[in-house]
Specification:
single chain, alpha/beta, Amino acid/polyamine transporter I, six-stranded mixed beta sheet, two-stranded antiparallel ribbon, 12 strands, potassium, transmembrane, ion transport, membrane
Length: 694
């Protein structure tokens, strides 16, 4: 009975652990300190986004700065933070596999109470059939059956509370003595070793209820929090007290206590409702796994997968086909391997406690770095939760031989996949940064870039955010012509939930105005929908480019000539070349002579004439450049994409060659490209595969 003393204490952590909050907390730390090892992680300019505006400094800002400096200056701490978040994510995904297996198997096992001669094989087969149906309908259930979740959970928890009240009224209120902490002290005093071993099983009184927090995609946060405190927690306490009262009166009963304590008249309705609730819990935990993996993909810690948004109203309703079938196969594997709730429960406790411990560590770091909490509160929080969780975790590890070993192997495999992907991506990014072209080389080529400037918009995709990517040099030497406007596009996943559309694109001019080269950083949060059609993406990008040019012209017109940036190159004198078809093109404003703007052209001023008003020059340049962009837009856009083959250098050590040449190459060949979701036609796509040695 005395395990009830631990239940409410563990409930406090459920909200953080059940919503995939480890990655959210890791991204929050990365926003405030440069601690991430993920390539291409944070730009100073991104702090202008509204999502990055955090709390104002507090009187304890000095301690926060010291913590930040320590984290940023220590490579070991950076690797440790990343390792902890990868481990926590692996345990969370394992929890998403164990929860359906445990919930459905335990609910169906109640059949043995209603039909005593039912065998365990029948229970296993029914559980497998229910899970197959559940995961087969997962894509449709996410968007079309979600409206029944609320009423079903309400009826289920009210039913639990009613059963608890019934058992308390029938068998007496002696179970309320479990709230007295002296009983747990006496229990540890009489049987310390057995009491320690029982802690892992006691944790199951709190786990399972976290599935309600996975419904945040359907209900507001405040509503879920209120219902948890006002409905879920009281009903859980009542049903556990009722089971304790039943055990006091029936001390020989030790299996399937919940179903045995149900009144015989209400057994079958409650049995069906229990199975429905188990399926709902399994479905919601699967959605939570989808959300966690989407966050890890966005932050570069998991291979890119196809993500399907199943609702236009709710952004959190997503479906990942590959992960869905992987979870089904894993659940069936655990059920067939163990065939009983006891062994599955042992693995469940290990997964749940692993997530809780990682959440405690990250909350403590956030308290020091961001919330700037007093050191007394931080120490109290860490010592209270971490001490209890480590005790429970040590007890759960004692059951490794009874089923926990399978979960540890499963989590280790997931951890290895995430580590290999992050490690290979970082080496690939570092190699691209070293091989990028210098701006001096581009300036020597001149505005024509040493080749012909053809009409149109060229979107060169790269993962680097500074400099000219090396693949652009290959395009210049291999293609007979290059587009009149070049935009280096970098799709970046920033550690914020949502990036407003007005802050989606960040533009910067590459070289001087005559080159017509720009850099565009397209930023997405880990909850943003990235499946934009290529026409929509082009339209938004061109609109953002036009606004950038207009804003640039306004800023320059407000400055005097002496205030202009000294790094800006002087405009190159206009030169005319003859194309093979006999047409004349300007190298400074390519193909502009073929376009007739709607406004009256302003005649060029001879060099010997009196200088014009600078504001007039800016206005003229703005009109010409906007007209030039319009011409390129009408011609169309071509996507220039580099799809390199990454290999380890010949002088690399054996394990690096094995990791990069085989494991990382396998993951890259089977994951999705960042631009695949845009549905780019093959006629507008140009891909190049070069070998990159890291």
């Amino acid at each position: 009975m005395s395990w009830l003393s631990f239940g409410p204490m563990m409930m406090v952590k459920l909200f953080y652990d059940s919503t995939g909050g480890i990655f959210a907390m890791y991204s929050l730390i990365c926003r405030n300190a440069k601690v991430s090892l993920i390539p291409n992680h944070q730009l100073q300019a991104e702090k202008r986004m509204s999502s990055f505006r955090l709390k104002l400094p507090t009187p304890e800002l000095e301690r926060s700065i010291k913590v930040k400096e320590k984290l940023e200056s220590s490579p070991l701490l950076k690797k440790l933070l990343l390792g902890l978040v990868l481990f926590g994510t692996a345990m969370f995904i394992s929890n998403g596999v164990i929860t359906p297996a445990m919930s459905v198997l335990s609910a169906v096992s109640g059949l043995k109470v209603g039909i005593p001669h039912a065998s365990q094989d029948i229970v296993v087969m029914i559980s497998i059939a229910l899970l197959v149906v559940l995961y087969s309908l997962q894509r449709y259930a996410t968007s079309k059956i979600g409206f029944i979740v609320g009423p079903c959970l309400l009826i289920w928890f009210c039913c639990l509370g009613g059963i608890g009240i019934y058992n308390l009224s029938r068998y007496g209120p002696a179970a309320f003595k479990a709230f007295n902490p002296l009983y747990i002290i006496h229990f540890f005093g009489r049987n310390p070793f057995k009491a320690w071993l029982s802690l892992g099983g006691c944790l199951l009184c709190a786990t399972g209820s976290e599935a309600i927090f996975s419904n945040l995609c359907y209900f507001p946060v405040r509503y879920v929090q209120s219902m948890f405190v006002l409905l879920v927690l009281p009903c859980l306490v009542l049903v556990y007290l009722g089971q304790a009262a039943f055990l006091i009166a029936n001390q020989k009963s030790s299996k399937r206590i919940f179903f045995s304590s149900i009144p015989s008249e209400a057994f079958w309705p409650v049995f069906l409702l229990a199975n429905l609730a188990a399926l709902i819990a399994s479905r919601t935990m699967t959605i939570a796994v989808f959300q966690c993996l989407k966050q890890s993909i966005a932050l570069g810690c998991f291979p890119r997968l196809k993500i399907v948004h199943t609702s236009r109203k709710f952004m959190a309703k997503i479906y990942i086909p590959v992960v869905n079938w992987f979870l089904l196969a894993s659940c069936l594997g655990f059920i067939v391997l163990f065939r009983s709730t006891n062994d599955v429960g042992n693995a469940y406790a290990i997964a749940e406690l692993g997530v809780m411990i990682m959440a405690t560590v990250y909350v403590a770091i956030i308290m020091l770095l961001i919330w700037e909490t007093t050191i007394v509160k931080v120490i109290s929080f860490v010592t209270t939760f971490l001490f209890l969780e480590l005790i429970f975790f040590s007890s759960a590890l004692s059951s490794v031989g009874d089923g926990g070993w399978a979960l540890l192997i499963f989590a280790s495999g997931l951890l290895m996949i995430m580590f290999i992907w992050n490690y290979g991506s970082k080496l690939k990014y570092d190699s691209e940064v070293k091989q990028k072209l210098s701006k001096d080389l581009v300036r020597k080529l001149g505005p024509n870039l040493g080749t012909m400037r053809a009409p149109g918009l060229g979107l060169v995709y790269s993962e680097i955010v500074k400099g000219v990517p090396a693949i652009f040099g290959h395009f210049l030497t291999a293609l007979p012509a290059i587009h009149s406007i070049i935009v280096f596009v970098c799709i970046r996943n920033v550690p914020v939930p949502v990036v407003p559309q007005s802050e989606r694109f960040l533009f910067q001019r590459v070289c001087s105005r005559g080159y017509h080269m720009f850099r565009c950083i397209s930023r997405y949060g880990y909850k943003d929908k990235k499946q934009e059609h290529h026409n929509t993406f082009e339209r938004l990008l061109i609109e953002g480019l036009e606004k950038y040019i207009q804003r640039e012209a306004v800023e320059l017109s407000l400055q005097s000539e002496d205030d202009i940036d000294s790094d800006e190159e002087p405009s190159t004198p206009a030169r005319i070349i003859t194309a093979p078809n006999g047409s004349l093109y300007s190298l400074d404003v390519p193909l502009l002579m073929d376009f007739a703007p709607s406004v009256e052209p302003i005649p060029e001023t001879p060099c010997c004439s009196t200088p014009q008003d600078p504001a007039l020059d800016y206005t003229q340049n703005l009109e010409l450049e906007l007209a030039f962009i319009k011409q390129a837009k009408q011609t169309g856009a071509v996507y220039l994409i580099d799809n390199p083959i990454v290999k380890a250098r010949k002088d690399s050590w054996f394990f690096k060659k094995l990791t990069i040449n085989y494991f990382y190459a396998f993951l890259r060949n089977n994951c999705r490209r960042a631009v695949v979701s845009m549905s780019i036609p093959h006629s507008n796509l140009l891909q190049v595969r070069l070998t990159s040695y890291v």
